[in-house]
Each structure stands twice: as structure tokens, then as C-alpha cells.
């Protein structure tokens, strides 16, 4: 078997696809035709580790108009598809699911059994027929009031090197892609911002990828939210999706292996560090405001000193928590030895960072 990379990269804003390093995400293989594709990947730098790269970005437009009101809520934070008037099960945290199950007259034990069958036990259920061991009346209630899927599989493609690209259609007609990468390759494409993804749309990519590829590629252990969009613009759904992914009775990703990559959106970064135990990666790319303003326009609003001070303040309350700094070297711009040494010294010498 090839060396599969098992890191899944998820971005939470709908704009473009991406496959980047420290980057898109069955026991039964579904009957889709696999056709070879060629040049849709670029090089990464850690070929020996397993990565699942998963885009949570609608990357391909369709003829459907985008309707931002397709998803609503029930007033308690539970996502509902307006097209079916059913709750989206993968849009709920465990505590929300437990309350919802109880509201229909069932005990919390039914909630944990459902949760395990959606996210654990190598089942990753997509419909009530796969809920073996659950009460018959409970399954009937689920079929009448809940949807397991926020995504519909459109196509699956396989490249000659074993890379798989899955196209999902969203409820509003947008299309996103999830890619499982078997080697040191990645991709970035620009399609323009469309909309934020719901927590259910983000989580379901991870569930589908595990269901489809675990037997072939082995365990998928890492998730990274990143891409052409800024994940922290969609902070509510990012935090919620990450919470669902790390639940110890479900997908059970380690919080240290679920990473959100940010360009430095300071207010949302502060909130993320306060509310989530998952990891953070900061796209640094320069050690002076002059250079970073040009490379990353967000720096004109949130200067480097403010970004670093925010990290120091919030990390002082977190035990053994480390920040990953991402630094892309651009020839003649930020690749001089002084800039690179400053970046290294920042992480080595700072007692917090």
C-alpha cells in the first residue's frame, strides 16, 4: 500500500478549493464510476504522513441560484433544512442532539447510541437502515423528523497516483470538493467567495471520507481548516464543527490534531482561543508590517504586534498549547536570511509562542 497522508483540511467559507500542507477531506464502496484525472495537484512537503485534504468550500458553480436562506434554525441552534423541514443531525453537537432526542420523548441513551452510529464504531450511518440496535419507534421518528445528509455525492474521480476527488452538491446547488491525497501533492484554485458552510456540511465531509476510505487508506487522524477563504469569518460553524469532530464518543479526533488556519483575524482569533481547545495555525509570512501589509492585506487592520500580543494574552491561560506559524517563502520578498531568522526566533525565543 502507498504511504497515505491522513490530514484533512477544511475551510469554512464557500469560495474555492484548496489542498495545502499543514492542509481537503465505507466500509462499503459506493457504486460510482471512477475516472482518471491528471494535473489537479501541486507539491506538498511531508510525503510520508497520512493526510486527508478536504475542502469545505463550494468550488464549482452550478446553474442554480445561491439561496442563503436554505438553512435556518429551530431557535436553539439546531440546523434545519428548509427544503425538507427536517433537522440536520450532523449540524448538532452531542448536547444539542441529546436535548433534541429528549424533546421527542426518548431517553438520553438513545442519543448516545445514535451518535456512535453516526460517527463511531466504523458504521458512519447515513440512513435509519444502518442503525442496528436502536428502538424501532425511535428510528421511525428519525426518518420523519431528521436528515442524516447535508451533502449529496455528485461524482468521484481517481487519479493514476491514487488520489481521490469527491464532488458534493449542497442543498442550494453549490458544489464543493473533498480530496484524499496519497502523496506529496496539493492544489489551490480561485473561484470567488460564495457563502459560509454550515457545521453539518463541514462535518459530513469528514464522515464520508472515513466511511469511504478508512479500509483502504487507514485511519484519518488530522483535520486542518484552511483554504482561499478565512475560516474564522465563519467562526460559529467552525467551532461547532470542531466540537463535533473531537467528541470522544464520535469521530474522536484529538483536539491537538484539529487545526484552524487563520490569516490573523484578531477578534475572532481571541474568541476561538477562549472557546475551543483545538489547535491554531497562523499564516505569518513576514516579520514586519511593511512586508506583511503587502502579502496579507488583513495586516493593515490587525498589525503584527496586535496579532502576536493577542496570542500571548490568550495562550497564557492555556496549558501546553502551541501555535503553528505558517511561512511561505517568496523569492526576493520574504526569503532573506534576516526575515527567516526573525520568524524562527519568534517561535524559539518567545516563552508563550
From TrEMBL:
Q: Radical SAM core domain: which residues?
A: 160-353
Q: Which residues form the signal peptide?
A: none
GO BP, one annotated term: rRNA base methylation
Named cofactor requirement(s): [4Fe-4S] cluster
Kindly provide the name given to this protein in its UniProt entry: Radical SAM core domain-containing protein
Name one molecular function that GO assigns to this entry.
4 iron, 4 sulfur cluster binding
Q: Pfam families this protein is in?
A: Radical_SAM
Q: Does the keyword 4Fe-4S apply?
A: yes
InterPro entries in the cross-refs: Aldolase_TIM, Methyltransferase_A, rSAM, rSAM_sf
**Which top-level group of life is the source organism from?**
Eukaryota
Organism (species): Trifolium subterraneum (Subterranean clover)
Amino acid at each position: 500500500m502507498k504511504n497515505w497522508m491522513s490530514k484533512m483540511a477544511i475551510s469554512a467559507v464557500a469560495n474555492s478549493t484548496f489542498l495545502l500542507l499543514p492542509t481537503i477531506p465505507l466500509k462499503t464502496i459506493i457504486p460510482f464510476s471512477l475516472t482518471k484525472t491528471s494535473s489537479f495537484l501541486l507539491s506538498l512537503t511531508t510525503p510520508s504522513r497520512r493526510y486527508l485534504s478536504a475542502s469545505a468550500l463550494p468550488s464549482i458553480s452550478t446553474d442554480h441560484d445561491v439561496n442563503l436562506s436554505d438553512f435556518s434554525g429551530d431557535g436553539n441552534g439546531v440546523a434545519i433544512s428548509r427544503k425538507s423541514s427536517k433537522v440536520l443531525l450532523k449540524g448538532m453537537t452531542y448536547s444539542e442532539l441529546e436535548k433534541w432526542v429528549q424533546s421527542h420523548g426518548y431517553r438520553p441513551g438513545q442519543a448516545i447510541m445514535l451518535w456512535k452510529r453516526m460517527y463511531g464504531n466504523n458504521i458512519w450511518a447515513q440512513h435509519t437502515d444502518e442503525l442496528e440496535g436502536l428502538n424501532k419507534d425511535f428510528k421511525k421518528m428519525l426518518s420523519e423528523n431528521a436528515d442524516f445528509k447535508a451533502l449529496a455525492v455528485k461524482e468521484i474521480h481517481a487519479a493514476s497516483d491514487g488520489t481521490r476527488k469527491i464532488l458534493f452538491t449542497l442543498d442550494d446547488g453549490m458544489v464543493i470538493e473533498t480530496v484524499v491525497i496519497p502523496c506529496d501533492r496539493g492544489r489551490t484554485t480561485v473561484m470567488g467567495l460564495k457563502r459560509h458552510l454550515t457545521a453539518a456540511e463541514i462535518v459530513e465531509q469528514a464522515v464520508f471520507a472515513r466511511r469511504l476510505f478508512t479500509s483502504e487508506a487507514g485511519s484519518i487522524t488530522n483535520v486542518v481548516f484552511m483554504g482561499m477563504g478565512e475560516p474564522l469569518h465563519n467562526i460559529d460553524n467552525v467551532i461547532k464543527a470542531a466540537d463535533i469532530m473531537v467528541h470522544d464518543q464520535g469521530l474522536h479526533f484529538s483536539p491537538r490534531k484539529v487545526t484552524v488556519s487563520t490569516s490573523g483575524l484578531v477578534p475572532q482569533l481571541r474568541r476561538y482561543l477562549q472557546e475551543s481547545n483545538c489547535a491554531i495555525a497562523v499564516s505569518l509570512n513576514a516579520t514586519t508590517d511593511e512586508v506583511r501589509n503587502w502579502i496579507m492585506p488583513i495586516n493593515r487592520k490587525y498589525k503584527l504586534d496586535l496579532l502576536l500580543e493577542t496570542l500571548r494574552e490568550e495562550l497564557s491561560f492555556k496549558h501546553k498549547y502551541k501555535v503553528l506559524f505558517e511561512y511561505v517563502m517568496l523569492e526576493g520578498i520574504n526569503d532573506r536570511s534576516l526575515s527567516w531568522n526573525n520568524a524562527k526566533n519568534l517561535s524559539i525565543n518567545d516563552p508563550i509562542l
